[in-house]
């Protein structure tokens, strides 16, 4: 029994008993990179987020770092796609070029790269398609190659998001043999088949042309499977474990925080951004308060690091 309101009386007292605080170091901003010059394209379903050509990306990164941004995750939008996603593991592809340009200009900036074929395949699936199914074991060598090409270009961390089995093992082996023993793997270990990815698929034009991703991404009704996925990825060599989406999956974040010792990354995905943004544009919600509350809740649940399309804005607010 207690008078709990004693510790809520004013801002100062609330702030000294506050358990969870967002810091600039917690946040990672996603960036979409395009071929070409002088492009900054809007994305209809994600107001405030853009696709940048390299020159514009460097300007954006300069601003982002001035605000205190230290890390970004990069997604490539190739100008051509094919059935094997060959642009994904081409040494002169969009992401290797971007990494080199970023590292030349900003050697300290932490570059994380998404490793997945879906942005590069003409069918939009995350792997090689054979008889209308995504072939796990034909896909993982391509992912290994993609991760190695990113490391060779100067990526600091590779982040496989495809949900093929044994891809972390393959990537770890390929990085090690290629001389990149010290490049960490941030595994999207627990990635659900989610309607929250819709706006992202607009952004990179990666919607599957047939079927869906339910044969490789997880069923959102399941939590025990999350632990199995995460434990297996750790045993294969994952250094970070990611949960995605974030806000509807706080129980999963909390579960993994209790069971694992690895850093937990939460990806607050495109649909989470767009829902808040849409309500904010209509003035139905206070954007800043809602974003800070949502991200603080994700951290309170157990995330060490949060990938958020609001990262840049939040850097201005905290
Ligand atoms: C690629 C990938 C996706 C996202 C991150 N990496 C899309 C998907 O699986 O369809 C989603 C990110 C977001 O919605 O913000 N596999």
Structural write-up:
Helices cover 39% and strands 18% of the residues. With 318 residues, it is an alpha/beta fold. The protein has a single domain, classed as Aldolase class I (TIM Barrel, Alpha-Beta Barrel). The chain contains 11 helices and 12 strands. Strands 1, 2, 3, 4, 5, 8, 9, 10, 11 and 12 form a 10-stranded mixed beta sheet that branches. The protein has a two-stranded antiparallel sheet with strand order 6-7. The protein is globular. Ligand PBG binds next to α6.
Which structural traits does this protein have?
two-stranded antiparallel ribbon; alpha/beta; 10-stranded mixed β-sheet; 11 helices; binds ligand PBG
Concise description?
With 318 residues, the protein is α/β, with parallel strands linked by helices. The protein has helices at residues 11-16, 54-66, 94-105, 136-153, 167-177, 198-204, 224-236, 250-259, 270-281, 287-301, 311-317, and strands spanning 27-34, 40-42, 50-53, 71-77, 110-115, 128-130, 133-135, 157-160, 186-191, 240-244, 264-268, 305-308. The chain has one domain: Aldolase class I (TIM Barrel).
Helices and strands, with pairings:
Layout: H1 11-16, E1 27-34, E2 40-42, E3 50-53, H2 54-66, E4 71-77, H3 94-105, E5 110-115, E6 128-130, E7 133-135, H4 136-153, E8 157-160, H5 167-177, E9 186-191, H6 198-204, H7 224-236, E10 240-244, H8 250-259, E11 264-268, H9 270-281, H10 287-301, E12 305-308, H11 311-317
The protein binds ligand PBG.
Ligand PBG is lined by residues 114, 116, 118, 126, 161-162, 197, 200-201, 269-270.
